[in-house]
Amino acid sequence: MREASFVKQNKEKWLVFEKALDNNVKINPDDLASYYIQLTNDLSYAQTYYPESKTLLYLNSLASQAHQRIYITKRESKNKIVSFWKYEFPLFFRTYHKTLLYAFLIFMSAVFIGVVSTLNDDSFVRLILGDAYVNMTIENIENGEPMAVYKSGSQVGTFLGITINNIRVAIMAFAFGVIFSAGTIFILFSNGIMLGAFITFFYNYGILEKTSTIWLHGTIEISVIVIAGCAGLVMGNSFLFPKTHSRRVSFMKGAKDGLKIVVSTIPFFIVAGFIEGFITRFGEKMHPILAYGIIFSSLALIIFYYIIYPIQLNKRNSSKSIKSIV
């Protein structure tokens, strides 16, 4: 669409919104938030197709005013925590779906490298996972208990230890994004190669089906590490590609947005830690239907909350804002 056509199509809506932002005009805070979502959609479109144009500068200025007005006038929810998880975060995360895709592709590329390398070099898995772990796993396989490592330790101790470690990895994946996203890419890549090598190691021993026990907790664990990697890329890319903002302002926004994404992963890591501490140790005795039910339910939960629900919520709010403005 030509810029002139884009302006003509949306000009009336923008002018109505601009008047609504006037301090002398009273507007329902919820309606204001809905208008803001539509405006940010137009801003994203202009950033993509009309960079460095006057239209982009105008929309950027309007969005900044709207942002300030929303956070000044929006009613505080009686239950802010529920509001964050149910509305605020999903709407916010929709704008970073493309970044999430990049994080996923980086991770899966590393998994592929790990698989191919392990298939072609038996010593590769030792290089990645370490001799001690490989030797211990081989001994467990020979004893007929390849997943014995998940049965050791107390349930509560395993739950707490795994949860804390997973959150630490997520924070690292985010924090390392400060190194121009390179640190986050390294974390995603190293974890991806480890996963690929690990799965292929079991495949080489003809017991790939036994890994279903690991996926009981690993489905959420791995998925959320990728999401934490997305958070790191958001922060790193905000400095590399500031768009219409100064690098300082863009980086501060990117760091704040990335941190919000990391915070969203904490409950999921707690769930993954609980499964590993209390359920995974019984995975080999579990009926396949129950085991795969947990695995696919976990995957469905992640896909719904981070991908499907944000899209649905964004469309719902966009349609409301269009009706309200027009």
TrEMBL record:
Any matching Pfam family: SpoIIM
Record keywords, A-Z: Membrane, Transmembrane, Transmembrane helix
Spans traversing the lipid bilayer: 100-119, 156-179, 186-208, 214-240, 261-283, 289-308
Top-level taxon: Bacteria
Coiled coil is among the record's keywords: no
Protein name, as recorded: Stage II sporulation protein M
Organism: Bizionia argentinensis JUB59
